[in-house]
């Protein structure tokens, strides 16, 4: 699913109006109906509703929604925040229609603000995607009162005061909704961690804006939805055999962190790899052979850390269809040398995680040796070590895109809505996953999953997008079964599903 910026959304609006064709006021009616349908399905008419409307089209949506709810016998009080002398044409039209049903309360000064109680629902339709400056004056006062109140808050399209595609400043006053119901496409702002409290639970309402405009409009930002993930997944040929699905090598573990190697190995096997070889330090050999009998093991010559050397045969990384390196490997000098040797001999994209990334950050000449289109899977701290501090989430996104372009790699920046940057500078935000995944070892699982997909011949971007999606989905299924709190990395492996 594409993510468009505010200018593109405005063009999409206009394109739909001209080419469907549909009158602007009818498009507003359609959007408001979509919101009202959602609302009515969720909340009974016994819950008192207070709607706060601005004077632009977002306010117009609010007034139309108020009319629809009133006609369904909801107890609705309409508050119009009069921050300017004029309304937009469509807002004025809906204002007139509304006044045939009810007398709105007009808020011009702080004393006009009604009290808000805990059983009430506030619908925020003060400002939408047309926000052009920080909130101030009476708008700011109303938003502060809404945020202080115990009422449930639902924003239409976007929280009033939140920019859809650029950073807010610290101190900006923004509605803090429980829900945001947005029209047609997600807004970039919803996917950035610092905005979490200005978004709440969000959902997209389909209002049938022009598919053709969306298809032909260029963007760098995407949101992976279930259909798109499903389309990436390949079916298996009836006559396939284990050789068809590649041979992966995982370089993982060190004394005290063999668990990381086990988790990555099990996840790799549960993600469809044909054959798996794991190289761990010698101390991991018995553990691995006992706990993951499906994997072959190359014990390292070293007892406690990885050197890459093994009695079984010298390091020849080229025989593997994909290599994944990093989980639990530590940063001993021997392991740094191993990584250097690996980078000098690798000819195919590989997966780099955890301490492999920390070693790259400390030995920056190694970055130049990364095979093109390799996959790096940092969490934010690891990414900062590889790059620099950022000022805000938009700045971080730019640093992410620049890094992926500069080193010709795919960067999987992990977290809620993991952001996958491609060498072309595109970013794919993930739609699955939950805070239950914030527990040790889930990153090791992801490395196993992505390495398995790469070994099966998926292109690195596809392997990353599909791997991250499936990993998050496994976390969601596991959380549905047992809740987020008790979730472990092993649960994620056990809930991987490839029949999406
Ligand atoms: N495309 C779609 O998907 C559809 C969109 N629809 C709806 O339209 C909404 C967008 O409408 P919109 O463009 O009228 O913007 P909105 O924010 O309501 O008002 C802008 C006005 O507020 C002003 N203003 C700005 N900042 C301010 C501030 N801090 N404090 C005070 N004033 C401020 C600004 O002033 P100006 O910048 O011009 O000086 C301008 O006059 C969208 O969110 C959705 O709800 C649906 O109806 C149909 C399908
Ligand atoms: N709040 C969250 N919502 C969704 N996914 C999350 C959240 N917190 C963590 N995750 C996911 O869990 C994984 C954690 O990886 P990482 O930080 O490397 O953990 P570890 O190093 O312990 O294995 C990543 O895939 C990340 O996207
Ligand atoms: K709003």
Brief description of this entry?
The chain is of the alpha/beta class.
CATH class call of the largest domain: Alpha Beta
Distance between the termini: 18 Å
Class of secondary structure makeup: alpha/beta
> Shape, please?
elongated
Q: Tell me, rounded to a whole number, the average pLDDT.
A: 97
The CATH architecture assignment of the largest domain turns out to be 3-Layer(aba) Sandwich
CATH topology of the largest domain: UDP-N-acetylmuramoyl-L-alanine:D-glutamate ligase
Instruction: Name the helicity range.
Output: 25-40%
The counted number of beta strands is 17
Give the percentage of residues in beta strands. Answer: 5-15%
Q: Order of strands side by side in the largest beta sheet?
A: 8-17-16-15-14-13-12-9-10-11
- Number of H- or I-type helical stretches: 16
Low-confidence stretches: none
CATH homologous superfamily of the largest domain? Answer: Ribokinase
């Amino acid at each position: 699913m594409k993510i468009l910026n505010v200018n593109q959304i405005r063009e999409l609006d206009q394109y739909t109006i001209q080419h469907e064709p549909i009158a602007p006021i009818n498009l507003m009616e359609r959007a408001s109906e979509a919101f009202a349908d959602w609302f009515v399905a969720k909340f009974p008419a016994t819950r008192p509703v207070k709607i706060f409307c601005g004077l632009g089209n977002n306010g117009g949506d609010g007034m139309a929604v108020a009319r629809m709810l009133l006609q369904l016998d909801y107890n609705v009080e309409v508050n119009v925040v009069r921050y300017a002398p004029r309304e937009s044409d469509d807002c004025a039209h809906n204002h007139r229609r509304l006044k045939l049903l009810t007398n709105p309360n007009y808020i011009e000064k702080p004393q006009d603000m009604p009290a808000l109680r805990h059983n009430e629902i506030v619908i925020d339709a003060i400002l939408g995607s047309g926000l052009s400056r920080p909130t101030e004056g009476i708008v700011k006062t109303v938003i502060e009162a809404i945020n202080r109140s115990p009422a449930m808050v639902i924003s239409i399209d976007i929280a009033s005061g939140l920019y859809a595609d650029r950073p807010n400043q610290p101190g900006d006053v923004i509605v803090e909704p429980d829900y945001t119901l947005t029209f047609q496409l997600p807004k970039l702002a919803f996917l950035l961690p610092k905005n979490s409290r200005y978004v709440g639970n969000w959902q997209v309402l389909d209002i049938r804006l022009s598919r053709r405009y969306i298809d032909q409009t260029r963007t760098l930002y995407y949101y992976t939805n279930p259909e798109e993930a499903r389309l990436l997944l390949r079916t298996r040929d009836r006559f396939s055999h284990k050789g068809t699905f590649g041979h992966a090598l995982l370089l993982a573990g060190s004394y005290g962190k063999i668990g990381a190697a086990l988790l990555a190995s099990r996840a790799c096997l549960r993600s469809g790899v044909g054959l798996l070889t794991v190289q761990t330090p010698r101390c991991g050999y018995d553990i691995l052979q006992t706990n993951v009998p499906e994997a072959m093991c190359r014990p390292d010559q070293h007892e406690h850390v990885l050197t890459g050397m093994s009695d079984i045969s010298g390091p020849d990384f080229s025989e593997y269809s994909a290599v994944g390196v990093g989980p639990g490997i530590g940063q001993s000098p021997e392991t740094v040398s191993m990584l250097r040797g690996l980078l000098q001999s690798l000819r195919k994209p590989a997966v780099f995680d955890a301490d492999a990334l920390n070693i790259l950050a400390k030995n920056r000449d190694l970055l130049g040796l990364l095979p093109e289109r390799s996959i790096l899977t940092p969490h934010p701290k690891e990414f900062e070590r590889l790059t620099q501090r950022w000022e805000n989430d938009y700045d971080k996104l730019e640093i992410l895109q620049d890094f992926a372009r500069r080193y010709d790699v795919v960067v999987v920046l992990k977290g809620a809505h993991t952001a996958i940057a491609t060498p072309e500078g595109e970013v794919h935000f993930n739609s699955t996953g939950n805070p239950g995944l914030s527990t040790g070892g889930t990153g090791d699982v992801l490395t196993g999953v992505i390495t398995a997909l790469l070994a099966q011949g998926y292109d690195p971007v596809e392997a990353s997008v599909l791997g991250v999606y499936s990993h998050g989905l496994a976390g969601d299924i596991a959380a549905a079964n047992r809740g987020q709190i008790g979730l472990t990395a092993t649960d994620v492996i056990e809930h991987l599903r490839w029949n999406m």
